[in-house]
Automatic annotation (TrEMBL):
<keyword id="KW-1003">Cell membrane</keyword>
<dbReference type="GO" id="GO:0005524">
    <property type="term" value="F:ATP binding"/>
</dbReference>
<dbReference type="InterPro" id="IPR015860">
    <property type="entry name" value="ABC_transpr_TagH-like"/>
</dbReference>
<dbReference type="InterPro" id="IPR050683">
    <property type="entry name" value="Bact_Polysacc_Export_ATP-bd"/>
</dbReference>
<dbReference type="InterPro" id="IPR027417">
    <property type="entry name" value="P-loop_NTPase"/>
</dbReference>
<dbReference type="Pfam" id="PF14524">
    <property type="entry name" value="Wzt_C"/>
</dbReference>
<keyword id="KW-0813">Transport</keyword>
<dbReference type="Pfam" id="PF00005">
    <property type="entry name" value="ABC_tran"/>
</dbReference>
<keyword id="KW-0472">Membrane</keyword>
<keyword id="KW-0067">ATP-binding</keyword>
<dbReference type="InterPro" id="IPR003593">
    <property type="entry name" value="AAA+_ATPase"/>
</dbReference>
<keyword id="KW-0547">Nucleotide-binding</keyword>
<comment type="similarity">
    <text>Belongs to the ABC transporter superfamily.</text>
</comment>
<feature type="domain" description="ABC transporter">
    <location>
        <begin position="29"/>
        <end position="256"/>
    </location>
</feature>
<protein>
    <submittedName>
        <fullName>ABC transporter ATP-binding protein</fullName>
    </submittedName>
</protein>
<dbReference type="InterPro" id="IPR029439">
    <property type="entry name" value="Wzt_C"/>
</dbReference>
<dbReference type="InterPro" id="IPR003439">
    <property type="entry name" value="ABC_transporter-like_ATP-bd"/>
</dbReference>
């Protein structure tokens, strides 16, 4: 294992034996042994299921690394193997440093013990001496913030209190490697904020993070590299933004596969193929995305406060209505700054009396149209990416949609500040203005 790596996973596979009924498990235990005694090779009474197949990855020291994939893709199995609670069928895993894992929270607690006793029990399991736990005890208790319940049996705790105590123990022992598997999704908003602050502090101190979540925005924000697992295999591995694009593209293909089956049943033409960095069935296709000034001239740099226009040109390949043309802007750190679309403007409008409701417009096959979004550029100095989308919205409230065409990196632009005229810090200027209260 390289001394630069916190985790090295080499060609790990994991096989499970699936039995149709309990009696088959008993047969599997007895009959093969009897057969081998007589020199025979009997049949197996189970079906093989490979949860992981030849998975390899490396997490560098101090790196934050993400794992994404649908339920059943092998994410949790991989984490359990890395944490040492499962043994791989083949391959190897090496870790370098103290490892703390937020997997099945509270699974290591004794329900008859008090919270205080379980802190010492879990600390010992993590390799800490009693004196080390004594030093960290106040920090753990303060982070958990369960008050007088700390000296009550864990079996009397609510699920939220168990989560608080488990997270407090694992994050306050100053691990070299922290594994998080959707654990923070179960806490309340304030506790989640406290957890993310603690994770950021651990990362600043050189801790390596292995993070699993279905929340793609959190994965993008917290991690620099990621892996996408599909049916136990590595589908994509590399920079987080690229991996998340592959994952979204995969999810779209799954949805389109289901939709194509409906098309087949209803004898509708099959969907068109899409270019790289985009996905969708192209019933309505985005032809171009341009960022321009008010005169329609394409620009790559804007001063904060300038008028900015995002022009999305589309063509309908089939008759279409109930559309939403929208965009998303991210900064170079991958933070989603804003999203906006025609549906956002349609939501408060009166369907019967407002002629400008875009959602009600009907477009014929072959018809082209352009939607332009305009306003003052209130973004701070940075490099920005524009993502564009046209979607079929089955209602007017973002409740149910189908992506027709999505494009990543559809356009880019930079924002700079006039440092002697208009200066602010952060993500954007909220437009707040001061006044004196007499």
């Amino acid at each position: 294992m390289s001394c630069e790596n916190a985790i090295t996973v080499s060609a790990v596979s994991k096989k499970f034996e699936l039995y149709d009924n309990p009696s088959d498990q008993l047969k599997q235990f007895v009959f093969p042994r009897v057969g081998r005694f007589f020199g025979r090779h009997g049949r197996n009474y189970f079906r093989e299921f490979w949860a992981l197949s030849e998975v390899s990855l490396e997490v560098r020291k101090g790196e934050s690394f993400g794992i994404v994939g649908r339920n059943g893709s092998g994410k949790s199995t991989l984490l359990q193997i890395i944490a040492g609670t499962l043994t791989p069928s083949s391959g190897s895993v090496e870790t370098n440093g103290r490892l703390a894992a937020l997997l099945e929270l509270g699974s290591g607690f004794d329900p008859e013990f008090s919270g205080r006793e379980n802190i010492y029990l879990n600390g010992a399991l993590l390799g800490l001496q009693k004196s080390e736990i004594d030093e960290r005890f106040d920090a753990i208790a303060g982070f958990a913030d369960i008050g007088q319940h700390l000296d009550q049996p864990v079996k009397s705790y609510s699920s939220g209190m168990v989560v608080r105590l488990a997270v407090a123990v694992q994050t306050q022992v100053e691990p070299d490697i922290l594994i998080v598997d959707e654990a923070l999704a179960v806490g309340d908003a304030l506790f989640q904020k406290r957890c993310f602050r603690r994770i950021e502090q651990l990362l600043d101190d050189g801790c390596s993070l292995l993070f699993v979540s279905h929340d793609q925005e959190t994965v993008r924000t917290l991690t620099s590299r990621s892996i996408f697992l599909e049916n136990g295999r590595v589908a994509s591995y590399g920079r987080t933004s690229d991996v998340l694009f592959s994952y979204r593209e995969y999810l779209q293909k799954v949805e389109e596969s289901e939709f194509r089956e409906l098309q087949r049943i209803n004898n509708v033409a099959s969907v068109k193929q899409t270019p790289a960095k985009s996905y969708g069935n192209l019933d309505v296709e985005i032809i171009s995305v341009r960022v321009t000034d008010s005169a329609g001239v394409e620009q790559s740099t804007f001063y904060a406060g300038d008028d900015l226009h995002i022009r999305i040109e589309c063509v309908a390949h089939v008759a279409a209505k109930n559309l939403n043309v929208a965009f998303r802007i991210r900064n170079k750190e991958g933070v989603k700054v804003t999203t906006w679309g025609t549906l956002n403007e349609d939501m408060p409008r009166n369907l019967e009396h407002d002629p400008d409701v875009f959602w009600l417009r009907e477009f014929g096959s072959g018809e082209s149209f352009t939607v332009c979004f305009s306003g003052p550029c209130s973004l701070s100095a940075n490099l920005y990416e524009v993502q564009a989308v046209v979607a079929l919205e089955y209602d007017r409230y973002y409740g149910n949609q189908r992506i027709l065409h999505w494009i990543d990196e559809a356009a880019h632009f930079s924002v700079v500040l006039r440092n002697r005229e208009y200066v602010f810090d952060g993500v954007c200027d909220m437009g707040l203005r001061s006044y004196v209260v007499e």
